[in-house]
Amino acid sequence: MSKMRFFALQELANRKPLEISNPSNKLSDYYGSHVFDRKKMQEYLPKEAYNAVINAIEKGVPITRQVADLVANGMKNWAKSLNVTHYTHWFQPLTDGTAEKHDGFIEFGENDMDVIERFSGKLLVQQEPDASSFPNGGIRNTFEARGYTAWDVSSPAFVVDTTLCIPTIFISYTGEALDYKTPLLKALAAVDKAATEVCRLFDKNINRVYANLGWEQEYFLVDLALYNARPDLCLTGRTLMGHSSAKDQQLEDHYFGSIPPRVTAFMKELEIECHKLGIPVKTRHNEVAPNQFELAPIFENVNLANDHNQLVMDLMKRIARRHNFVVLLHEKPYNGVNGSGKHNNWSLCTDTGINLFAPGKNPKSNLLFLTFLVNVLMMVYKNQDLLRASIVSAGNSHRLGANEAPPAILSIFLGRQLSSILDEITSHTSHKEMVGEEKTTLQLGLGRIPDIMLDTTDRNRTSPFAFTGNRFEFRAAGSSANCAAAMIAINAAMAHQLNEFRLSIEKLIEEGTGKEEAFFRILKETIIASEPIRFEGDGYSEEWKQEAARRGLTNICHVPEALMHYTDAQSRSVLIGEGVFNETELSCRLEVELEKFTMKVQIESRVLGDLALNHIVPTAVSYQNRLLENLRGLRETFAPEEYEILSADRKELVRDISKRVTAIKMLVREMTEARKVANHMPHYKDKAFAYQENVRPYLDSIREHIDKLEMEIDDEIWPLPKYRELLFTK
Ligand code: ADP
Ligand code: MG
Fold first, then answer.
1. What is the 3-state secondary structure (H, E, C) of 479-532?
2. Integer Cα distance of 99 and 553 in angstroms
3. Which helix (H) or strand (E) element contains residue 349?
4. Can you tell me the distance from the alpha carbon of 170 to that of 127, in angstroms, rounded to the nearest whole number?
5. Residue 681 lies in a domain
6. Is the pLDDT confidence value at 728 over 80?
7. How many angstroms separate the alpha carbon of residue 472 from the centre of ligand 2?
8. Which residues contact 391 (CB under 8 A, 6 or more apart)?
9. How many domains does the chain have?
């Protein structure tokens, strides 16, 4: 092994950036070339089939079998023009993109890939893959291994290499969701309905509300050869040991620095492939940590944006390999260095083109804006625990609350001026006190919002849920996560909140209160009730933790405990109440999440145990032997008195190495015992708790000794690439 590190370093010295050239000088020549989008549908489908698909996308009208046949035929002809030979249903099982047993994203063709010649409407619409190896939380017994995939008309088919991929949902034989897309589509339908009903209190022309998502994907790149010399990275996606580099991100020089040429080549190729697939990626830049980068597209509707994120994560991994890089999507590949998140920029937009989170141009539209804004406050306040449950994981728990990412406490940043507007509303007793600039039917005297919104100088980077001018940015999501988890929670919770809000308004109006006064009263009430969730200060500070506790906000860092809130009373009323999950699906979802956590910690613990005993301890002992030999030589050479003086430090070192080797062996033994006890627990919940409480702490205590040894032992025999090599080689 020790040789591998040095071979890798040698290999590195000879790496050259790949030459990447654009397919054409004009982006529009190839943008979307590999997507069966509306333009291609028009070209390849008969008019009736085209119209039926558009109706299905826009109005949810089901597609008949005859139309499906026509679409399949058109798709096939288009795909053949790109030399496609196979097709596959493409779906998102409940794993996510981390380097463990089932590598997040399904490999193209592995599941139910078939040759394109046989493609028909029946095969387009539904498939029956043998999917017994995907996590299902006990829904599917092994004797009933069948699951169904069904075409998601709202997300266009696309071509990767020689395979036509059809986005689908994935459900069990008994109809329960086994994926992320099914509940996501339900949550989006729920928020559409609830938001549209609220909008129609203002404007009867509004018939639909769409949720948008713009994700920002952070990731690390590491050289392939170095990666291969780190079994912990290969098997767990993160380094389980490694002393921090003498230099890491103190100077923040990477953030502003130019992108290294090999990385630029990778990014360029990734962008080209994204653009061919109609993924509107836009920004690329360095992130705070060395060898950390970010990629972000222009926002799209949530379902499509999320498909695109899944696709991008897969493309990244594959393209990186061609450049001799490995992409690390893990939330915390390196201790002591910033981790990676995936900000979810979220907004709601009407079919008449109004962004409901953007302040309007007149008092009437501002009331609409305020209504949605205030409901977001209340939604987050009431559903802190659900939102947290939707983003916690073994990986993300290293980030949250570690002074680099939002804490595990949920709060909303609004900015000074918007806050003062809310405060002004609460200082009045009736809407009549609030005189607007214009006389329209609905107004609260708030005609001046647009001007002040231009001031975004005080954007707060430490807030987990920040208002950023025309959207909310949920910053707690992890880099490897499927955004759907957070989007399901947020959109379902928003639907629930809007429904409650509308019922309160309607009740007041029924009782004879005027519409304006009804809005005023409920908004005021909601602003006051949700006040504890608003926080403008430093979310990373210790004072905030104390202040949040005083306000009664929850702060749960214990992963299984945070996950358990998926099934608490509030979450159930949101997720089951809004029809996103049924009872079985929700409890299965929880089970899958807890098991994923258990499995990840289990793998980390095994890998660390192996590395400690097979790599680190032997290296330490062999170095110790060299020291002992040196001591013997000194004793033979020097008189006893001088020997004592000359050998003191080496003796101390021998002693220290002995102590650490003994400690490592003892801790590994204890950890193995703790694992055994946990593994024997019959219930998955107890198992997850045992892994969090009794196994996880050993990962840190063992590591501490190993990292100290790394500093003591001769660099030339240290077997694993060091942080400075992993982080600073370009
Ligand atoms: P940041 O300052 O956080 O880096 P960017 O300008 O890079 O912000 O935008 C981050 C993401 O937010 C992008 O994907 C962008 O398209 C998205 N975004 C912008 N406006 C909206 C909106 N109204 N709704 C949803 N996402 C949006
Ligand atoms: Mg951002």
1. CCCCHHHHHHHHHHHHHHHHHHHHHHHHHHHHCCCCHHHHHHHHHHHHHHHCHH
2. 34
3. strand 342-350
4. 9
5. yes
6. yes
7. 10
8. 474, 476, 477, 478, 481, 485, 486
9. 3
Q: Which atom of ligand 1 lies closest to the CA of 357? A: 23
Measure 345 CA to ligand 2 centroid, in angstroms.
7
Same domain, 197 and 174: no
C-beta 296 within 6 A of ligand 1: yes
Same structural domain, 523 and 615: no
**Residue of 478, 486, 183 lying closest to 313 (CA atoms):** 478
Query: Taking the CB of residue 56, how many other CB atoms lie within 10 A of it?
Result: 17
Binned at pLDDT 50, 70 and 90, residue 98 comes out as very low
Whole-model pTM over 0.70: yes
CATH of the domain at 617: 1.20.120.1560
DSSP 523-566: HHHHHHHTGGGB--S-TTSHHHHHHHHHHT--B---HHHHHHGG
Distance 287 CA to ligand 1 centre (A): 16
Ligand 1 atom closest to the Cα of residue 299 is 16
Question: At 156, which CATH number?
Answer: 3.10.20.70
Closest atom, ligand 1, to C-alpha of 459: 2
**456 within ligand 1 shell (Cβ under 6 A):** no
| 97 vs 390: CA distance, rounded Å | 16
**Among the atoms of ligand 1, which is closest to the Cα of residue 358?**
23
**Hey, what are 583's tokens?**
């009872």
Containing structural domain, residue 661:
596-728
pLDDT in tens, 315-327: 999 999 999 999 9
Distance in angstroms (rounded) separating the CA atoms of residues 691 and 595: 10
What token pair was written down for 417? 């001026």
Q: Is the model's pLDDT at 213 over the cut of 60?
A: yes
Q: How far is the CA of 530 from the centre of ligand 2 (A)?
A: 24
The answer to whether residues 719 and 614 touch, using CB atoms and an 8 Å cutoff, is no
